[in-house]
Amino acid sequence: MSALLEIRELCAFYGRTQVLFGLDLDVAEGGVTTLLGANGAGKTTTLRAVSGMLHMTGEIRFAGERIAGRAIEDVVRCGIAHVTQGRGTFTTMTVEENLQLGAITRKDSAAVISDIERMYAHFPVLKQRYAQQAGTLSGGEQQMLAVARALMLRPRLMLLDEPSFGLAPLIVRDLFKILGKINREEKVTILVVEQNAQLALELADQAYVIETGRIVMSGKANEIANNEDVRKSYLGY
Questions:
Q1: From CA 69, how far away is CA 58, in angstroms rounded?
Q2: What are phi and psi of 32, to 5 degrees?
Q3: Average pLDDT, the chain
Q4: Which pairing describes strands 189-193 and 55-62: parallel, antiparallel, or unpaired?
């Protein structure tokens, strides 16, 4: 598979503090890539750099087009949806209003209605809660809504930042099964940042391990999952 997202020599900064140091990373089109590492290693910063949220240097290409330095809204228009840590749903709006908001830039109203029903098929609990305010949903339901709202953009690439954070193990398993289905059936490419390394490696085709802002390991996800030295040194299981 060819690379849909290509990152070369990526350095990123918060003010004068440098957080990423020359990252190289490829995300294959149609696949699932995971970026693993401890808290503070630079995982979230990498996703923010792709989305245009912070100052960076280096090269970022999406579908062969340079997107480094573009504004957030321009990155979204390219076909990249970012589900940030903390979900970011609009808590006073209903489930269905959140989904409609996810498609606000689209003009194909009939297709938007169809896509909302498709989201309800992926996440049946959201259909049950369609008129409920997002702020009253459980943490797992809010995460499902955040993913569904991102999919309303019809993205080619979805960036997921710690989708399992704060969720019960059973809910996490269900969510990751749905993500795998979306990847297989809808061909949405996924780059997922995740603390639950074992679960992320089960979902992914390709994996990168980041430590203090540098990539220290990369390879096929199953090979990294089966490498005991890598697991003990970098993944903590």
A1: 9
A2: -120, 125
A3: 93
A4: unpaired
What pLDDT score was predicted for residue 237? Answer: 66
Q: Are 192 and 32 in contact (CB under 8 A)?
A: yes
Average pLDDT on 10-24 reads 97
Tell me the pTM. Answer: 0.94
Strands 157-161 and 80-83: parallel
Please state, as a whole number, how many other Cβ atoms lie within 10 Å of the Cβ of residue 231: 16
Give the model confidence (pLDDT) of 74-114 as tens digits.
999 999 999 998 767 788 999 999 999 999 888 888 999 99
Residues 6+ apart with CB under 8 A from 218: 25, 206, 207, 208, 209
Query: What pLDDT sits at residue 87?
Result: 65
Crossing angle of helices 169-186 and 109-122, rounded to 10°: 140
Give whole-number Cα distances, 107 to 75, 79, 82, 113, in Å. Answer: 19, 15, 21, 11
Contact call for residues 91 and 133 (beta carbons, < 8 A): yes
Q: How far apart are CA 152 and CA 100, in angstroms?
A: 8
